[in-house]
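Quick one:
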Amino acid sequence: MEKTIGPFSEDDLLSISGLQHLAFCERQWALIHIEGIWAENRLTAEGLILHGRTDQPDLEVRGNIRIARALRLKSINYGLAGVADVVEFHKWDEESGTQTATLSDSKAIHLEGAPGLWQPVPVEYKRGKPKPDICDEVQLCGQALCLEEMLGCSIPKGFLYYNLPRKRHDVIFDENLRKSTFALIVRLHELNELHKTPPARYEKKCESCSLKEYCLPKIFSKGKSIKAYIAKALQDELD
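Output:
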């Protein structure tokens, strides 16, 4: 996928993590990234604890894998910026044209102070278990797009690590996922330009959202009157 929508200035870069919020719910994205509202619940607290292990910049070498933690990412072409939990660099076997980490064939890069060629692999840590949607996958793909632009290489796959099964899950950055991610990037910038929070719409997934008490989707969903809600609340107080 060669589509881009930039170039953007440094001041116009939007958070990569916003792709996950947007894929989950446009209103959630706006509440967080436009209105600056955030609230903790058990799920977000567990997520912060899990990410606490990867939020300090660090470099570790484990055999043929070099591990960079809290690596800053940005893309001028897509207008994104953020921090990757982990980016692994897997050693490329130049003689056979394969990688010691058994990843599929792709461009590799030179690393300063490390002989040979290396394949970048983004790794995102998530609480809980794999989700039925692609919210986490598009966030990881957004990281890959930034890395590809920064390093001048192609990245075929990454990993999502979930703490409940304590297991990595392969994420292949195929054409379908790249198209879905690109569409969300376009929508991300559209909503940011509008600078307006979309109306509430109640769905089952709202029950797990930490912003439910701010969003009030059951009350302010389509067809609900805010004026009637306020009047009822005042009457309840009087009663």
